[in-house]
Amino acid sequence: MAASTSAPDPFRAPQNRPSSDHFFVWREFVWGALAGAFGEGMMHPIDTLKTRIQSQAIISGCQSQKSLMQMIRTVWTADGLRGFYRGIAPGVTGSLATGATYFGVIESTKKWVEELHPNLGGHWAHFIAGGIGDTLGSCVYVPCEVMKQRMQIQGTRKSWSSIILKENISQKSGQQMYGYYSGMFQAGHSILKQHGLKGLYAGYWSTLARDVPFAGLMVTFYEGLKDLTEYGKQRWLPISEGQLNCSVEGLILGGFAGGFSAFLTTPLDVIKTRLQVQGSTIRYDGWLDAIRRVWMMEGTKGLFKGSIPRIIWYVPASALTFMAVEFLRDHFNDGLDRDAHEMASIKIESGAPVKEVA
């Protein structure tokens, strides 16, 4: 009888494992959401500069294009500090969604790919996981991005009115590009009323075309740099007691990964931005037409316009995001694992007498 009562215990422990793993995935969603919002909030002014530089061709044509320093001066003179933070509400909202799906789905997808499709393991698994996570987040992110970017190029109400008068942003029929947006909800309602869901999801496919490779590249670079760092530590610091803090490692490696990925996908970002901010003034008839016209009129320089502020934005934003995720994992995962293990132990102990009676 003693043997029969003790035998089930090893089989019960694994039964609790799926729920623990499932909880692990969901807390990655939380860490990712917090980290994404943190990174966006910290770096939003740089993103505003990038958006304004990339959308100049729509606002003022190909003439009098401003450099980064000139754009900083223009925004500060016209709108002050407020101008740099226009559109931060939809920006943070979109980053909450993509941060959650990006890091949450990455963990579960990496496990799924590596377990069921071992031939796709390693960096392929990371690339696929990043792409899937970002694709799922795009349902919320794209409408937020449309609202954010339109609010960014508008600045304050006074500066937007002066830009419309100065640059004569209108169609030949005399219809205005779009009115001033006082806030996130008013912007969403206005776009939905004027253009329907198509307006809110303007540039959706170009966003995916940019974000899927960007997300895949970033997590691939990050995991690759982590492997390289680990190899370096084992080879040159095998006996060293000092371990590089996970948060510091995330800060440094996340910055490099974000910078590399941002530069490589800049042309896709230029096309996406122009499609999303053009509004009723139809300058580009779809993604392929936008690529063709930018290439013909502006060349390689046009496709990589805004690459410097994009890199300046993504290096610290990615660094802060990965640092925040590693910090949250480092400081909360152990405690959550301990609680889950204790709960599993209580269930096993409370279940043992019942089995014995049976």
TrEMBL record:
<protein>
    <submittedName>
        <fullName>Mitochondrial substrate carrier family protein E</fullName>
    </submittedName>
</protein>
<feature type="repeat" description="Solcar">
    <location>
        <begin position="245"/>
        <end position="331"/>
    </location>
</feature>
<dbReference type="InterPro" id="IPR018108">
    <property type="entry name" value="MCP_transmembrane"/>
</dbReference>
<keyword id="KW-0472">Membrane</keyword>
<comment type="similarity">
    <text>Belongs to the mitochondrial carrier (TC 2.A.29) family.</text>
</comment>
<dbReference type="Pfam" id="PF00153">
    <property type="entry name" value="Mito_carr"/>
</dbReference>
<keyword id="KW-0813">Transport</keyword>
<dbReference type="InterPro" id="IPR023395">
    <property type="entry name" value="MCP_dom_sf"/>
</dbReference>
<keyword id="KW-1133">Transmembrane helix</keyword>
<feature type="repeat" description="Solcar">
    <location>
        <begin position="121"/>
        <end position="228"/>
    </location>
</feature>
<keyword id="KW-0812">Transmembrane</keyword>
<dbReference type="GO" id="GO:0016020">
    <property type="term" value="C:membrane"/>
</dbReference>
<feature type="repeat" description="Solcar">
    <location>
        <begin position="23"/>
        <end position="112"/>
    </location>
</feature>
<keyword id="KW-0677">Repeat</keyword>
